[in-house]
């Protein structure tokens, strides 16, 4: 949906220009914050494999050798002997009171919650990349405007001095022009420092040195109404989805705790052999097969306490969902209003630039015929400068507000901005177990 709106496909870039797409790609691929969240997801994804393992049979083997001496009555003449031992054992859970199903269900929901946390972090990184990209664009434009202002004021100062030499204006007019040039030079230095800070922020977020950072074309597509935006947010916001899956994991935790109150049935089998290591070759072995049923009768209230603890944890998760849902509603409202405000500011800023351009040209022409003073010209030029600076800032704020609105909706993911989504290899490997593993049944 956003590729066209973002202007990621058709930017008219210079040879060395850094497009918004390149900025997003670099941030997405190199962000340590996002990489750490992916690592956390990899950790969580192992939970389903570990939970599934409880349903599968276990098999173990052991071997050992022992040697020793014996003496005394009946032991022969100080003979020595040794044994070589082999054993093989297997066990299979037949019924675990539902603990295995609950563990797998809990693990799956935790994976989904973690995956949506990755999406949330992904959106944060993308919005940060957009912001620093536009910060550099804005501050570069401000430096250019400030530098041009210094040049214009310097030219006006030269003209003022020439007019002073022929007696058209007073020394006061020249001093006013000199003061404006000095002030403009100071403002240029401040703007250059701000640009340096923005470039450092760009490098921090993307890992790239900003060269010719390009102004993106167009605007992202945003909903027409707040109601539409809110509906999308309540369905797609990753923080809310993560909270919902955490709630489901907590419900599975209740079932897991209650399973400890039920019996446990397991089948076991073992085979062993012990053979003497001397020349007689005598050996003895055994094979056993059995079933074990265990049922907790009294645990000092431990299992019941764990059930109550799990219920309380589920209540906490449910209330956390309510809290996140309210936060999402507040966030989407704030983002929408910020977007509307930024849109209004950019419209008024464009009108202010147009009006101040006309006013400045009129004051300058009137000054040529003596109807305006040098101070009038300087003031008009300053008003025009301020309106141009305000427009540059408004353009940046308007674009960031639009992307922030999409983030609040959950529509600022890598795929939705035209990036190739990152796929964890081992998560895909673990996922192959999930379809073949029943989530309901006797275990």
What topology does this entry show?
Blueprint: H1 2-6, E1 17-18, H2 20-30, H3 32-53, E2 58-69, E3 80-95, H4 99-165, H5 171-206, E4 212-213, H6 226-236, H7 238-259, E5 264-276, E6 283-294, H8 302-368, H9 374-409, H10 425-431
Parallel strand pairs: 1-4
Antiparallel strand pairs: 2-3, 3-5, 5-6
Give a description of the structure.
With 443 residues, the chain is α+β, with helices and mostly antiparallel strands. It has a single domain (2-58, 98-260, 309-417), classed as Outer membrane efflux proteins (OEP), CATH 1.20.1600.10. The chain contains ten helices and six strands. It has helices at residues 2-6, 20-30, 32-53, 99-165, 171-206, 226-236, 238-259, 302-368, 374-409, 425-431; strands at residues 17-18, 58-69, 80-95, 212-213, 264-276, 283-294. It has a four-stranded antiparallel sheet with strand order 2-3-5-6, with no helix packed on it. Strands 1-4 form a two-stranded parallel sheet. A hairpin with a 6-residue loop joins strand 5 (264-276) and strand 6. The longest helix is centred in the first third of the chain and has 67 residues, at 99-165. 35% of the residues are buried. The model is unreliable at 1-15 and 435-443 (pLDDT under 50).
């Amino acid at each position: 949906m956003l590729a066209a709106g973002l202007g990621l496909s058709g930017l008219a870039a210079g040879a060395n220009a850094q497009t918004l797409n390149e900025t997003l790609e670099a941030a997405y691929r190199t962000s340590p914050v996002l990489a750490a969240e992916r690592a956390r997801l990899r950790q969580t994804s192992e939970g389903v494999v570990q939970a599934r393992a409880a349903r599968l049979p276990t098999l173990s083997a052991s071997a050992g050798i022992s040697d020793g001496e014996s003496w005394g009555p009946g032991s022969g003449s100080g003979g020595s002997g040794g044994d070589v031992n082999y054993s093989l054992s297997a066990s299979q859970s037949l019924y675990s009171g539902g603990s295995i199903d609950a563990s797998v269900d809990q693990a799956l929901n935790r994976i989904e919650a973690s995956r949506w946390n990755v999406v949330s972090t992904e959106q944060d990184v993308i919005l940060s990349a957009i912001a620093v990209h536009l910060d550099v664009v804005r501050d570069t434009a401000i430096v250019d405007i400030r530098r041009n202002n210094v040049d214009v004021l310097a030219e006006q100062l030269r003209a003022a001095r020439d007019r002073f030499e022929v007696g058209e204006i007073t020394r006061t007019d020249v001093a006013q022009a000199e003061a404006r040039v000095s002030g403009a030079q100071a403002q240029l230095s401040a703007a250059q420092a701000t640009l340096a800070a923005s470039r450092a922020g760009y490098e921090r977020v993307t890992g790239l040195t900003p060269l010719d950072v390009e102004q993106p074309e167009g605007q992202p597509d945003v909903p027409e109404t707040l109601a539409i935006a809110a509906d999308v947010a309540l369905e797609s916001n990753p923080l809310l989805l993560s909270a919902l899956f955490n709630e489901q994991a907590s419900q599975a935790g209740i079932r897991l705790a209650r399973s400890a109150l039920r019996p446990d049935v397991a089948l076991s089998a073992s085979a062993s052999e012990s053979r003497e290591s001397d020349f007689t070759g005598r050996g003895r072995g055994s094979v056993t097969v059995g079933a074990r049923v265990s049922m907790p009768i009294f645990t000092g209230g431990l299992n019941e306490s764990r059930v109550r603890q799990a219920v309380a944890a589920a209540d906490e998760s449910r209330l956390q969902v309510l809290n996140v849902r309210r936060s999402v509603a507040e966030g989407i409202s704030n983002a929408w209003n910020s977007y509307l405000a930024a849109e209004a500011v950019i419209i008024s800023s464009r009108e202010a630039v147009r009006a101040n351009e006309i006013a400045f040209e009129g004051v300058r022409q009137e000054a040529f015929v003596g109807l305006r003073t040098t101070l009038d010209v300087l003031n008009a030029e300053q008003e025009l400068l301020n309106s141009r600076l305000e427009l540059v800032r408004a353009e940046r704020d308007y674009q960031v507000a639009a992307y922030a609105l999409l983030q609040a909706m959950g529509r600022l993911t890598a795929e939705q901005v035209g990036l190739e989504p990152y796929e964890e290899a081992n998560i895909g490997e673990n996922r192959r177990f999930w379809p073949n593993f029943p989530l309901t049944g006797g275990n």
